[in-house]
């Protein structure tokens, strides 16, 4: 089995009359130029040698090809490009078998689809995540996938970018054989089995599945997913490409695919989404800590408080197989909390996303207790109680006396000063903020709040755990509201003032929704509860919010808030609210006028950018892209706009500054410019590029 060819990351060796082609291009075997060149050379080698009867393509390391090399996008193309590579593979006159482990993604799956056969290990995964990069599979994937897996599956996979498992892939015909044990050995054996079968099965020539497609499937699919795809360009173009696979012969379909791919690739959304791919990965890198910092071991987690947050937080760990001890003050609260957790798990199971054994397994490693001392041997304790400094300090003081040395003491506070909390212990280096977003078992974002004394290994542990519980974590500094909630504040202040000046909740919310946010500030207030943080005195009415709370308009839960709600929680504008707003404006002597949508953008979105710049300037975020990660994952900022800082760069910082200057007088003392923003605008610089 001597190595006979080595072209960069691609090597070949012979196994009898099978040529085994191996890619070794860590970390994910991306299909960069050298890999593409090597693959073509390997196929040429097979073609040029009569003794070779079949080919196996496999990868070393953690995964089969995870797609095109994204770092090459936007750079001058290096030949051969991927479409040529996959055609070369499919046109090989000897059978080619793709041997798949890890994740066959994007261009990787396209290589597999161009191979004549596919074998995979049971835990292999398959997907075309290009849509998440604002693209579509551009190397024949949109044409071969429906031919092999069926049109509906192809629509699902291309527009969601979600991965499927080996069994499902096998069931839909994407995988020919699932093999247990040594993959290469099985793949070679498979190649020997099929070496003499002719004609070779070529995905591009199959017509059965595309011909069987229901012609109404596209219209139905568009309708069913209209909400999900709102604002995004790539899903629609993926659908059009799959439509071409049904309507046209392969040779014409790939031309459509190429055109649609280029339209997306040169567009602003793809740029934003590709930027975000790297932003998300960069967020995991913690600055200013020794590189060799090792994490602490976390085998058991304690959670204080079984309310909505505590329960949601616990579920993350339980789902990852980490035992949780949850502490409450009363049996009733404990039972209620654990009951909600079970109900949530059961709801997931009823949707088929979990088995009942998994539910029992998760609930089986939960230890509910009223005994605070039960936390003493936990490795990480997360406090999730009322947002009151005195209570938090008391709890941390108690923890300090109770729990073992080396345990990490975390607070789920969303605003409070972690350093002050840490000062109530004798071990501030072990204290960190872990700010989960509600619902904590669902939302992907985690802000890791780094206190002045937080130890590097505590940060590294938190970051590692975040990945384990499938969160995207961002490191934030200690400031009021950290990154996300801090930026929400200027938006809320200006949105509320705009109401008095003449805008309506509907107008402001519409501007935000049209921008791509899932909801506007007032829809969000109604959903979260207008009463959050309210002083609870109905006679003390100092602002619009107080007035709404005083008449029981606490938001959706009461059927009334900034909007009126029907029994299906559908909102309509409220004349009562409008009257309250007008009365307040009169009382405060605010002159009402027509407010333009542009003014709303400038006062609510540009101000967020300004606050983001302050956060950067103060070192409260490690980098601008981290702010974007917070907003995309924590608040539903449309990823096709990259995040507030990337968006500001796209608009031009001079445009942002001009807009803010236009509004400066109206915003009054609530607003002050970030020096960083002004400086960058002046110098023609950007935050993220
Ligand atoms: C495509 O294929 C287009 C074609 O259809 C048509 C072309 C004509 N390229 O995520 P991780 C880096 S589009 C370059 O932390 P994990 C990543 O930045 C592509 N680099 O690991 C990170 O670098 P660093 C379609 C890539 O184990 C390191 O690898 N494919 C690529 O959690 C580790 O990544 C995709 O979109 C890449 N394609 O997850 C798949 N992928 O260490 C994208 C990763 O410096 N990749 N890197 O920060 C993934 O989904 C995940 O990386 C994967 C592994 C699931 C594979």
User: Which CATH class of the largest domain?
Assistant: Alpha Beta
Please give the order of strands in the largest beta sheet: 13-12-11-14-15-16-17-18
Q: Which CATH architecture of the largest domain would you pick?
A: Alpha-Beta Complex
Number of helices: 28
Report on the biggest sheet: 8 strands, mixed
Q: What Rg is obtained from the alpha carbons, in whole angstroms?
A: 28 Å
CATH homologous superfamily of the largest domain? 2-enoyl-CoA Hydratase, Chain A, domain 1
Bound molecules: (S)-3-Hydroxyhexanoyl-CoA
CATH topology of the largest domain: 2-enoyl-CoA Hydratase, Chain A, domain 1
Q: What is the CA–CA distance across the termini?
A: 48 Å
Number of strands: 20
Give the amount of beta strand, in percent.
Answer: 5-15%
Q: Per the principal axes of the C-alpha atoms, what is the gross shape?
A: globular
Mean of all residue-level pLDDT scores: 97
The computed structural class is: alpha/beta
How helix-rich are the residues, as a percent range? 40-55%
The total domain count is 3
Low-confidence stretches: none
